[in-house]
Amino acid sequence: MSDLLAGAYLAKGTIGNVGTPGAPVASFSLVVVPSQHSVSGTVVITQAIQGPDSYIVVPVTGKIFSTGIGKVTQVVGLKGQYVHSVPPPAFGSFLADFEANLAIDNEWNGTGGFSYYGHNVENVPVKAVNQVELV
Predict the structure, then answer these.
(1) pLDDT tens digit string along 26-44?
(2) CA 16, 21, 25: angle at the middle one, nearest 5?
(3) For residues 108 and 11, is the Cβ–Cβ distance under 8 A?
(4) CB–CB of 85/57 below 8 Å?
(5) In Å, how far are 3, 15, 133 from 9, measured between CA atoms?
(6) 130 alpha carbon, distance to own chain's centre
(7) Where in the chain are the domains?
(8) In this structure, are residues 82 and 91 in contact, taking their beta carbons and an 8 Å threshold?
(9) CB neighbours (10 Å) of residue 97?
(10) DSSP string, the chain
(11) Contact 42/59 with Cβ under 8 angstroms?
């Protein structure tokens, strides 16, 4: 039982064309446990265009696997749901699905895509964000 979290680490980064006006970008902060092939954390989708989809927070879980194929050393699949509110004049809210797939190297850089209510973003950069780890 003590090896359950063996090798766990934090991965932070972005999926999308950062800096492109109007492009949706998914920022992720994930706890990765390679020994369990598990990933969990939060994805925040932002878009400069005002509207119900301009800022979305999604709790996610997923799987990570090694590939052994050239520069792509890992593949990651994420899924989650978030509350989507319908803009006026309609009203109401419902659970909307989020999915992401990443083909990355050991530093969490590569290519990927994500989808959420009414949006599909494909073949965009995945870039790690370097952060200072606090102990």
Answers:
(1) 999 999 999 999 999 999 9
(2) 25
(3) yes
(4) no
(5) 14, 19, 10
(6) 16
(7) 9-128
(8) no
(9) 13
(10) -TTTTTT-EEEEEEES-TTSTT--EEEEEEEEEGGGTEEEEEEEEE-SS-STTSEEEEEEEEEEEEEEETTEEEEEEEEEEEEEEPPTTS--EEEEEEEEEEEE-TTS-EEEEEEETTEEEEEEEEEE---PPP-
(11) yes
**Measured between alpha carbons, how far is residue 27 from residues 8, 71, 100 in Å?**
20, 22, 11
Cβ atoms 98, 60 nearer than 8 A: yes
- pTM for this model (two decimals): 0.89
pLDDT digits (tens, 9 = 90+) for 115-124: 999 899 999 9
